[in-house]
Amino acid sequence: MKKNFQEALAAAPDFKSLPFPEDEFSSRLQRLRKEMQAQKIDLLFLSSPESIFYLTGFQCEWYQAQSGRAFPPTSGLAVSADREGFIHFETPSEAILSHVSTVSKDIRIFPLDARRDGQTFILQELRAAGMLKGKVGLERYSYRPNPVISDKYVAAFEGAGLEVVDATDLLRKLRRTKSPLEMQCVEEASRIADIGMKAAMAAIRPGVTELEVFGEMIAAMTKAGGEFPGILPPVMSGFRANCSHPIASRRVIQKGERVNVDVSGVYNRYHSNICRGFYVGEPPKAVLDFHNRSVGVFKLIEEMIRPGMEVQSLLKAVTDYYKDEGLLEESYWSGGYELGIAFPPDWVGAFIYDNSITKPGETFDPMTVVNHECVFFGPQKSGLAFTIETLIFNQSKGRIASKFPRELQILAA
Prior knowledge:
By secondary structure, the chain is of the alpha/beta class. It has helices at 3-11, 22-38, 49-56, 95-100, 119-128, 147-159, 168-176, 180-203, 210-223, 285-295, 297-304, 311-324, and strands at 43-46, 76-80, 87-90, 106-109, 135-138, 163-166, 235-237, 258-267, 270-280, 331-337, 352-354, 368-377, 384-393, 398-400, 409-411.
């Protein structure tokens, strides 16, 4: 990594490509530092891909999430409560990418003799910068880094005299409320999700595999400008439609079967989630009626959602609807969760709501996005009546994002 590398590294800023203007990232950092000061956290070390992206725009294909011990996931961002900017620590392998795809001004690359494990280097740099003091927050509830590396960070910071606290929720809380630019990304992701679902419907027919449907759906979304989603979108056919999370397989779809498709459109890593049900050939009347009664709840949801409303009021109205329709006892799950920035292996956000966990006073706040899942075990072992919508709460109104029909779609056999 000498002459050719140095030439490429020097040219990297000329090829910079960011998902948002620099002012957007600056605003995010200011909000974060204000919250750090409120919580009396002096130093924050961020390690999750979502957090790093949120502050810098950085994204890559590999975060050493499940790699061998020779590749420990030690890179991240160091944010101080009382100094401008942040320090972006990266491996030499991502030196060029970190200059191409981020707003980071202070990028410090691990030395070559410690190019895989930069923890010692990071602590040395932070000590030299006078940042090893007071209370340090780590993302202890993140999968990255793994528990062993996380424990090493705890020991290193405590050894340097700092108090270590879990600060996972600090940035997750800030990310829940989105800026106008972020909401535009969700709108675009919603458009892309509908394109993917339309492609899936066109691909479903007797003789094709679940994987073929998956491939056509992904191809259509990428052609529309979409990105890979945080979860592999499941395609569930035949008896497998009684499951909610199977991976698309080589199973061949047959006439007389239900097919469920769950997908997120993605734009600048922001997700919009929908799920729809299809039937190959004419469905039994009981199956058709059951599904279409279940999705009737979304008309109720569309009429009542608004920013600032209590979550429990929505859950009560939905539950009452299911009781009146005689569906409640067959419920698999009724609830939802926050959507936004996500990288594999998950697109499920931090805010989750349903009758078992939602507390009085919790609200759907302005400039937030959630999904709502309507999932019931259908009659005759036909599969789950499985429908998901994304709910967008702007400053003054709430609405359902997708335009794709919710009724069971009957396809030619």
